[in-house]
């Protein structure tokens, strides 16, 4: 097996602002695993909030190149376990390799990934479209620019309810709100009744990850479901979030790929929790992998390619919230350039 690595700066269509900061460019790393004529693709973005740079990620994988290339791919799960000792502290790099391994394995088996897992895509949830923080006129323009059945609204300003009231005047679509840890428990409980009136489905990660006392209050008192994001990054966090959150938002890059994500979904289901998977503003490579988890989910946020000025891959597509799979095997993504040249 051969390893290929390509780095790229994804240009965003508009400046993307959340409570943590703003960006116009999203650096990303594409990983390729080749076996014969088949190439599996994976992706991991470099996110400053998590202290990652493309350079660090590439160095990590280059250092492990012998192990990556010489470990047999008997199954993606076996491959993940074999490399875990080297990558357990590098979940983003681990994710890129795991997704590439899943893609390659399914291509070798001659099946789409969801079919290999025995799943039906007949009743997939719709993906939301994210509206970043900005002047209200700008946020309204984003909604008009992209009519969509479900919007995730990023909040964390001094006038969050006022913003949402203005946005509601311009669409009847469902809202989901994501405060990215910017609120307190008192604020959340104060906002929640009005959020319900404004057609909000749930609130994502309103509190700082360490505020378990405040989170328990919300779990017991908030009339809207609370979904964990920053509080649920690795497999062990699922049990920790039980009885503090009504559901979890899994990010493949935070947990280490599709292999642990599927275990997290199963564990959350056993605990009676809602399950969402979200993206990290990646290209169609990463989002195509997420698409194969859709039959297992209640909610999904996989709009990353829609936020880009120019994608670097083709694969799954999205129209009015619905996800469409290309008629190919594996995860379904193909680069628009030759990474092996």
Structure description:
This protein is α/β, with parallel strands linked by helices and about 350 residues long. The chain contains 13 helices and 15 strands. The protein has two domains: about 110 residues, Enolase-like, domain 1 (2-Layer Sandwich); about 220 residues, Alpha-Beta Barrel (TIM Barrel). Helix 9 links the parallel strand 7 and strand 8. Helix 3 packs antiparallel against helix 4 and helix 8 packs parallel to helix 9. The protein is globular and about 55 Å long.
SSE inventory with pairings:
Blueprint: E1 2-18, E2 21-35, E3 38-45, H1 54-63, H2 65-70, H3 76-87, H4 91-109, H5 113-116, E4 129-131, H6 136-145, E5 150-154, H7 160-168, E6 174-178, H8 185-197, E7 200-204, H9 212-221, E8 226-228, H10 237-241, E9 247-251, H11 252-255, H12 258-270, E10 274-278, H13 284-291, E11 299-301, E12 313-314, E13 317-319, E14 322-324, E15 334-335
Helix pairs in contact: 3-4, 8-9
Q: How is this structure best summarized?
A:
The chain has 13 helices and 15 strands. With 341 residues, it is α/β, with parallel strands linked by helices.
